[in-house]
Write a structure and sequence with these properties.
Blueprint (H helix, E strand, L loop, with lengths): L1 E2 L2 E2 L3 H30 L2 H21 L5 H13 L10 H19 L6 H25 L2 E8 L10 H12 L2 E11 L4 E9 L1
Antiparallel strand pairs: 1-2, 3-5, 4-5
Helix pairs in contact: 1-2, 1-4, 1-5, 2-4, 3-4
């Protein structure tokens, strides 16, 4: 059935879109939530990676039929490769993860019939394995240090706001905090002495 010369539903193409998008989301979700976030604790980039990956996948998959293919893929790499958020500088590691999620999304969307599903699965698993290996070894090599900070937002020390507290201190100090301990609370001055543990 068509409307204005366009198929309303192509079952075969829709099934392929559904399976591939689900597979791509599963791969990116694992990379971001199981590899990136535990090591970096940055929720902002979790949101960014998942959304950019999803948008890039659908762009590539849906526009693949108009034969942009390689040129379109390289164009995406060029555009996203020079992205610099104006409010902050993206670290090399964050840019590497961005490149990986874009690359995987392009690969999963544009893989044609000349590439078997086994080959596609092998490529995805290989990248995940390498990421996992280097992330774990990099984490083992980092040295943990500690220092004290005097924190003035006394309302943020509540246990239920621990994640917000960590994010706030990380954003203000630029340090990657592994854990923190509240050493002393001064209700007169509305301050708290906090010991933070961070990695370099």
């Amino acid at each position: 059935m068509e409307f204005l010369g366009i198929d309303i539903l192509d079952k075969e193409d829709f099934l392929e879109l559904f399976i591939r998008s689900a597979f791509n989301l599963l791969v990116i979700w694992y990379i971001v939530k199981s590899l990136y976030y535990p090591a970096n604790k940055n929720k902002d980039y979790v949101f960014t990676y998942l959304l950019i990956s999803t948008v890039v996948f659908f762009l590539c998959f849906l526009l693949e039929n108009v034969k942009l293919e390689l040129g379109f893929a390289l164009g995406l790499f060029a555009v996203f490769g020079i992205i610099r958020y104006r409010t902050e500088t993206i670290s090399v590691k964050e840019m590497t993860y961005l490149f990986i999620v874009i690359g995987l999304s392009v690969m999963n969307a544009l893989a044609n019939k000349k590439i078997s599903y086994f080959e596609l699965l092998f490529a995805n698993i290989s990248i995940i394995f390498l990421l996992d290996y280097f992330e774990r070894n990099w984490m083992l090599q980092r040295s943990t240090k500690s220092k004290y900070v005097l924190y003035e937002k006394i309302d943020m020390i509540a246990p239920e706001k621990r994640d917000e507290l960590v994010d706030d201190i990380q954003n203000r100090t630029g340090l990657r905090i592994e854990k923190l301990e509240i050493e002393q609370i001064d209700l007169v001055r509305d301050t708290a002495k906090i010991k933070i543990y961070f990695v370099e």
